[in-house]
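lol ok so funny story. i was supposed to be doing the assay writeup but got distracted and ended up predicting the structure for this chain instead. priorities right. anyway since i did it might as well share w the group, maybe its usefull for someone
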Amino acid sequence: MIVLSRAPKPQLTARGYQVVVVNYADTHRQDLAFKLAGINTVISLTSGPAQLALIDAAAQAGVRRFAPAEFEGPAAQRPQPDALDRGKRAALERLQYYQTRGMQYTSFVCGILYERFGPGGMIASGIGLRSGIGAEGDYLLHISLRRAQIPCGPNGQPGVICMTSAEDVGKFVAAALNLQQWPPELRMCGDRMDVSRLVQIAEATLGVPFEKAQYTTQSMQSELQLARSAGEIQAQLRAIAMIATANGRFDFATPNLNTMVAVAPKRFQTWLQEAWQGR
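and the output, tada:
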């Protein structure tokens, strides 16, 4: 395995990984393809124009399989236009083009990462640093402050989410490398529940009640409009993520990868207890 990075990663090198420094600019496309020569599978963790450059270079180098930086809900459940896109639609369209020329691809669908609800949020684990909503409290729960937001859909019921820990995502992806064929989506899930149940688990884990705010479709749209009027980008992203949750963006009932590989994912309550133990 090699790791492509814009800068040296001594912490990965120290753990035995081969780190190759690359430049995703168009002027370096040939060099990027050269560094991918002989690589069978690319798992992308970059997005936007850099990911498109990586896809083009992979196709040029004869890479057999490519997994884009998806790692959320199914693509079919995203609205158009999509404020949370970050170049994902363009990447999938490019991969569909190269699929006709022999390069397989799959989107790894994992729903919401448990790490969103850990101390410090996702960014404390080095995940979602550029998402704008990776800190603790940016999505549904602020466990340190004992606060919760419950977005409800048009039917008045709390949104439902699928979730997986980042560690288990890694295990699923590693196991999927042994599959002979990749379908367009490989879905994994550690736990699935509505947001009310999510809050109940957090309250039980901490042993204290949370301050809860329930949102309707109308109130979430009002929050979004207020954030837009104020020019508050982060508040806009938080509101958009809540609306997406209420509309089922991160929910799916058929985690096909769970049945295809021998990975037993950790349940959310177990993970949360371990993450907040002693705090």
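The mean pLDDT is 94. The first strand starts at residue 2 and ends at 5.
back to the writeup now i swear
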